[in-house]
Specification:
8 helices
Amino acid sequence: MTAIPQTMKQLVIAAPGQVEWQDAPVPTPRPDEVLIRVSGVSTCPHWDIHITEGKPMFPGQDLKYPYVPGQPGHEAVGMVVAKGEAVQNLDVGQSVAAWRDTGEARQGFYAQFNVFREVDLLPISEDLEPIRIASLELAMCVEVSFQQLHAFTAMKGKSIAVAGLGPAGLVAIQLARYHGAVAVVGIDPVAERRELARQLGASDVRSGAAEDWPASRTDENAVDLAIDCTGLAPVVEFLLHRTREAVVLFGVVRQDIRYNGNLMWGPGVSLLGYGDHNRAAANTAYAAVEADALDLSTLITTTLPMSDYLSGVEQLRQKRAIKVLFDPWI
């Protein structure tokens, strides 16, 4: 095992539009934590874009600069190089992926090393390259929406629409197939993303224009279930009027959603909220990766040095990249 250095590089968003790739001490794990040599971190596009623009990710959230070092990096993969005395199930030399963002104001993964609690890490196969598994945390988040649908009705044999073919939507297309959907409709105004959705298992794609899919919950074009990955009220309402059973929310909602009386009958369509992040969802997502049913590498448009962070975020902002994988060692 290579000796652990005393210093490392970490990213700090010093102010909107301003970042520093700075020297910092390598952190020491607490009793329930491990020290990870980070091999790759994938972007969470909305989060990265919001923070670099000076906007909170969630409505009403406080936002202060300099931002917490290493944040908002949370979709990460690496190797355990040291562990606290209370750690029981992870060993030095083991490959791990972060399956849950703790939501705490603690150092993030935009760094060469990071400490993280054992309970928030999933051991993974050492032959999985970072591009194939760094986005596991996102896949876990999307799987939570499928848990909501499973609690509502059986998924197998149903048709499902996915609105918003960014990273989450492209994961949802694949997980819908993994959970037994017989038809999957991908909805997005960007033609390139619709084509990628087809490659990943969508049986049909639509632009989201009203004339492209006239509103009706009763004809053959309607779907049984739907997932919204946009958080946009007009998109959710679009789905409600074309879905027979339930629409589940994944995107962060910032607007009021109109649910009119006509949606109550026939029978009515339900609008489902989000659930809690949980390890079972992470295990399901990882099993889908291992079964080659979920290809997370298709989300990564490019790999960049961590020092090129702002360049990568600009590609996300201009929709020239779906996700960016940052390597802290190049």
